[in-house]
Amino acid sequence: METNTNWLAACRIEDAAEDGGVCVKHGDIQIALFYFKRRNEWYATQNECPHRKQMALSRGMIGAATGEPKVACPFHKKTFSLNTGACLNGDDCENLKTYPVKLENGTVYIGINPKS
Predict the structure, then answer these.
(1) Which residue from 44, 54, 100, 112 puts its CA 20 to 30 A from 2's CA?
(2) How many Cα atoms are found within 13 Å in the side-chain-facing hemisphere of 18?
(3) Which numeric CATH code is attached to 6-110?
């Protein structure tokens, strides 16, 4: 994680969708923020699915495959690692951009690189 990361206050912890996602808009970018309550883990990725360029990943289903947390695009079911952004279908598909997430004083923050 870069030391010059800007931390965007996304929401309060209690306002996050449990075992699902929400879209956070920051300037011209859309970020999908996921709260995997069953695992007590937080993830953030780009909201645009690289398969068909639709801003929809925040509405995708989350789960795990062999321990790897993943999100499935709600339209075409392409699945991506929430850790690395890699496409898990074995297809020739772009990886997702991922963002660091931290919790402080009841607030969820997403790490934005100034070059993003």
Answers:
(1) 54
(2) 4
(3) 2.102.10.10
